[in-house]
């Protein structure tokens, strides 16, 4: 797809490292003009300087206006990639209201606010592309991380709603749902991540490759770990059996803590 996004205006949130930085690099390689967003201004500038992009630091919930200005008024692709994860939901219970509030704001409402700001122009011109970095946790779940698992389900639900509501009006939506990816976020998941995610973890660049292939094939659901499709089918086909299997993993995790 070399040059497929030549001249396109692309925004990537949470792009100071990890998946976001890989997406920014890949879109830049395709010829896009890329806005690199991150809360950490120094990290955003580092990636932007590397790829010839434009750094726009700040909260991912409120950067559409600044990003649009940086791209001379037009955003063609918006990658809602910024995310947060917290430990929680173990045998002691899932209630940490600070973690729940932050997860809801970043993992769900930042997507909603961005779409609200982008849709008027996209609908007027009949084109636009919204990329939501969800996680396999949004299709399945994740032990030891209740706020993350639940809000990633919310992110997927919102992406589905966007797609079904606006696809006939030219808005393309993609939900990217990897399992473990070798990033700082994975390193912070502790023993639960070591058990469930590390064995099959991939590099961020593999996620960017999967997204570009999914865009080329015009697919909504993008699975950098193809085996997730079978897990998702098993979950839908026999929820009790699937939950029993996940509970065994939970017990295995508890035994190692």
Automatic annotation (TrEMBL):
<keyword id="KW-0560">Oxidoreductase</keyword>
<protein>
    <submittedName>
        <fullName>Oxidoreductase</fullName>
    </submittedName>
</protein>
<dbReference type="Pfam" id="PF00106">
    <property type="entry name" value="adh_short"/>
</dbReference>
<dbReference type="InterPro" id="IPR002347">
    <property type="entry name" value="SDR_fam"/>
</dbReference>
<dbReference type="InterPro" id="IPR036291">
    <property type="entry name" value="NAD(P)-bd_dom_sf"/>
</dbReference>
<comment type="similarity">
    <text>Belongs to the short-chain dehydrogenases/reductases (SDR) family.</text>
</comment>
<dbReference type="InterPro" id="IPR020904">
    <property type="entry name" value="Sc_DH/Rdtase_CS"/>
</dbReference>
